[in-house]
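Hi C.,

You asked whether I'd gotten around to modeling the 397-residue construct. I have! Everything is below, sequence then structure, no commentary in between.
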Amino acid sequence: MLRPYCCTNGYSRFQIRTRADYLYAMEKMMHKNWWKALGVLLVLYGILAGMLIPLKPNLVSASPRIATLGETVTLEVVGYNTSFGADAGAVQAWLSAGEGLSLAATDVAVIDDRQAVLTFELPPYLPDRAAEKQTFPIIINSPADGAFVDPIGLTVRQENAAADQATAEAGWKATALRKGDLTSTPFITFPYRGHLAETIRNIYFHVSLWFAMIFVFIAAVVYAIKYLRRSGAASSELPGVVSLRDKADFWSVSFTSVGMLFGVLGLTTGAVWAKYTWGSYWSWDIKQFTTLIALLIYAGYFVLRASFPDPEQRARLGAAYNIFAFACLIPLIYILPRLSGNSLHPGAAGNPAFGGEDLDNTMRMVFYPIIIGWTLFGFWLATVAYRARVLRESALS
């Protein structure tokens, strides 16, 4: 009886060929779908890093906020994510008056990790002779927390200015900050903004979803244009085969559906953010209003398509309407809010968007990757929707 030829490792030729084919198929699939895996990994990275990295230590409150020149003022401060107790004897504080001008606290009494009492002996004059009042940010430094600044600080009024500039600055130079007095935060943190606090993390969801929505809608309008360009040409496909013209329509519908999903998620996360920062989920702010109009225009795209039973007429009118909807999108969500005057939403006139101090380098390490991740994930969802539509159309024909 003949035995099948076996290799030294125990696998038959058939098994080796099967394993080789399997590995080749897996390798081919990975080369083809690498961007899908990248999108999922970037979204997971953004969610985990965005939720787990702590905010930088800062002050939640300081009392009092107003003081008189020439007197000793005692500030009771309450910290956020602070560890004053870890280095009670090494905590330092200053009132900052500008470059080369600051006033060191004569005493820092630590109560616990979050509470401390700062004592300052204010000079008789402000460093700015022309000012009636001046606000001095509070700088606190400790080995456990690093250095951080409370921008609200302490406001001091001046009734009589110094006779000369040197006299005005004398009291603010004697204990001024020197090189090496401040230490960096010993761990990775996101910036603390008093009016946002922990809700600053929503930028990785609310804002990044809007960016991804724009990119997905761009893809939708590109395929809408492709459909209109191909609609005049005769189809060369066999009966029962989806034509290139119809594929462009299917892609446009799929991308528009995903764009609407991202838009609704962006509007929802924005409403939640507004509740914590503005006090209400919906305040009819110009940015909220114009964004709602833009999404309602895109919702009309699906209503329009559902109104026409003829596939070709539905696709042609839908493609034209898709171009119109995208042409309305940018003015509604970007241009009009900036032209309307003041708005509660950052990025409008009188209310600048996140700047370098708000969206710092640590946040950029998460913000930009998650935008790419949401975009790739959106394209993957559109691919799934497109394949489902092709299968449905093929089954019907």
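If it helps when you're writing up: The CA atoms of residues 243 and 271 lie 42 Å apart.

Thanks,
B.
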